[in-house]
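ok trying again, last paste got cut off:
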Amino acid sequence: MKNKKSKLRKANLRDAKNIQKLIMVFANRELMLPRSLNQIYENIRDFWIVEVEDNLVACGALHPVWGDMAEIKSLAVNEDFHKRGYGKIIVEACISECETLGVDKVFALTFVPEFFEKMSFVREDKNKMPHKIWTECINCPHFPDCNEILVVKDLK
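nice, full thing came through this time. structure:
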């Protein structure tokens, strides 16, 4: 499978159900926040996907949250396709999109900070971030005891 051609593209409405299915694999294990189909449809323009042979194998979203700041969220890679660079491809696409949006700082909340640190993200104190970033936290099974790690990349 490693030699099969992959394709990165912006998601469209026809991708929503497969995006949700992939996210829920990890959300059901409390490794990421669940996303309703409605949330995905409403935010479909935020999502990037990677396809291999017309099958969605990775997704992630860049979501502006405050001033010049955006969050990379809902980053998921089908477990059969781990360690092939698809997560990195999604993150790089999100970072590239930041320039168009005027984003100077991009962040993620993650259980795997080392993944982001390989792309020059640094760990930061969550309490230094604007309260606006916590609007989805109420939906987290770990709320209010967040055990994710904040990673930030300054793009200036």
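cool. The mean pLDDT is 90. The two ends are 38 Å apart (CA to CA).
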